């Protein structure tokens, strides 16, 4: 049995929970990308329309504001993703306890769950972008 067969089988065993997690993370990634691109377009269009009418200081403040909004969107997306991962892992506390009680080393348990998280994250990012 390969190293990745357990996490994949575990994800396939919990189809509804895995599907909901992938769907919510995909939606989060898609909305973050959309808001970043939409914010850039708004900032670019406003700066082109207002070119020559605004002072240099106001243009600089406006561009910093657009950058701050983009940064805020990325941070919000990261917080939502980390919250989803936390909820997913807290629901699996019994599984982790059962693995530890059966004598599975901590490194192997960590590897299983990290592989599971990587599969879900890559699938969500691929579908969201």
Task: Write the topology of this structure.
Blueprint (H helix, E strand, L loop, with lengths): L4 H9 L1 H35 L6 H35 L2 H9 L4 H23 L1
Helix pairs in contact: 1-5, 2-3, 2-5
- Please, how many helices? 5
The chain-level mean pLDDT equals 77
Secondary structure: helix percent: over 70%
Order of helices and strands: HHHHH
- Beta-strand residue fraction: under 5%
Radius of gyration: 21 Å
Q: Total domains, how many? A: 1
Characterization of this structure:
There is one protein chain. The protein has 129 residues and is mostly helical. The chain has one domain. It contains 5 helices and no strands. The protein has helices at 5-13, 15-49, 56-90, 93-101, 106-128.
Task: Record keyword descriptors for this entry.
mainly alpha; about 130 residues; 5 helices; elongated
In short:
The protein is mostly helical and 129 residues long.
